[in-house]
Amino acid sequence: MNFSAVLNHWLHLLSVIVWIGGSAYQVFVLSPLIKSGDLPSKTLVQMLRRFRNVSLVALIVLVVTGGINLGIRRAGHESFPPGYVSALAVKVFLVVAMGSGLLVGYVRSADDENKKESGSDQSALPGFGTTKVTFAFGIIVIFLASMLRQWKF
Q: What crossing angle do the helices spanning 82-117 and 41-74 adopt, rounded to 10°?
């Protein structure tokens, strides 16, 4: 057993759990609280900003460990089967889409802070606009990861 490969895979899984699990929490717990108005707006904005920062760290760890996982998986093989490459491409595309949504949230947050400083009172929820899409894509990515893990070549 290669301990560094195990550690790398564990970090990859931990990042997925944090990012997709946090998105699930937002969809299933925070969303109903937003609709009911039970959660103070200031607290909600602080929670979403903190999660957005954690998500960015998780995304960076996912990209790095994913590349290392691919290298470990490829070791000793001349090529991947075409179906494996297609499934991996879909997985990478979905992660890029989710990461793009996260980065767009950062840009929007900076714009919202500029509007706040200029006197406009608009209560935007940072990073909440793409949460349902991130969660849905994350579930698909997890399925594809399971499929790729079981692929024998």
A: 150
